[in-house]
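Standup notes
- HV: blocked on the assembly model, inputs below
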Amino acid sequence: MAEPQHHDEPTKHEEHIVSPKIYLAIGTTLLVFTAITVGASLIDLPGDLNAVVALAIACFKMTLVVLFFMHVKYSSKLTKLTVAAGFLTFVVLITMTMTDYISRAWGRW
Amino acid sequence: MDSHTLAAQTSETAHIEHEHPPFLRHHFASVEQQRETATFGMWLFLLTEIMFFGGLFCSYLIFRNWYYPAFVVASHSLHLWAGTLNTTLLIISSFTMAMAVHASETRVRKALIGWMIATIILGCGFLCVKAYEWHDEWVEHHVPGLNFSPQGFLHGTHDYPDDKLQLDMAEKTQVYFSLYFAMTGMHALHMVIGVSLLSFLLFQAYGGKYVNGHVAPIENFGLYWHFVDIVWIFLFPLLYLISRHQ
């Protein structure tokens, strides 16, 4: 009987040590985008663009934190799937709530 | 010989027979598998946290739409500099926590302790700024249910002379401040819990733990800390930024 092939086991996953250089680059990027989002809030953009820009930057910052600080980029498929499934469920719940909210004919207050 | 002694001896022998690090539980095949399992469990917990804060964000979205003028004027009363300072402190603390995980992985005790202390200091700094803001809001009578007064929202302010609401709409700023205190309060509670847990981990790291390959507790605390950072990354624009020019 041959030796069990350990490297083929689905639970097996090589831990990846992320270099401090990457952490420093990500931290700096996050600070730069904090400055950008504050700067953008001081400019009067047309319509709802202020909110769109601020939330887009927040989503971008979140993505950086999740992928690099929280190691999801270097994690196993199980972790990646868990995180993705969680965010998807969250989006579905918010969408359903909002669909209900905007399709009702209630007064303003 | 009673059964207790026997059990103790058996487990003692078991450790000698197949040598493994003392922190590896017997039901795991390897340290790696144990770490992977812990990360999976931690993420499941964080997903419940996403749903929890997500509910608050959702109600903020709907109520902002309902009482739009009240939310805009109430948002103008926050200090932009305090929010910016706190965002900066939290992002730097996320960086120092990531470095603490790195120090644990590379097994450098001094670096681990140093980065953990830096994270605790930055976290406390955040809480101090938050406490200053809350105090300011108390002085301004912006705390719903305790000392709220709509007077500040009727006649405009120095920076926003046009911020003149009708009395009924000025009363609705309480909805903004209720959500503001609920969200920043829950976030600050998470910070207090985080600083407490980290202090405990620091105490253990001081005693020599977590630099022998046992990274999971540090790593999972890091996940928690970064999650709390992400919540603030969204609270900051929603509460402070998006109503600046409305």
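- HV (later): unblocked. Chain B touches chain A through 53 residues (CB under 8 Å). Chain B has eight helices and no strands.
- Next: hand off to the docking folks.
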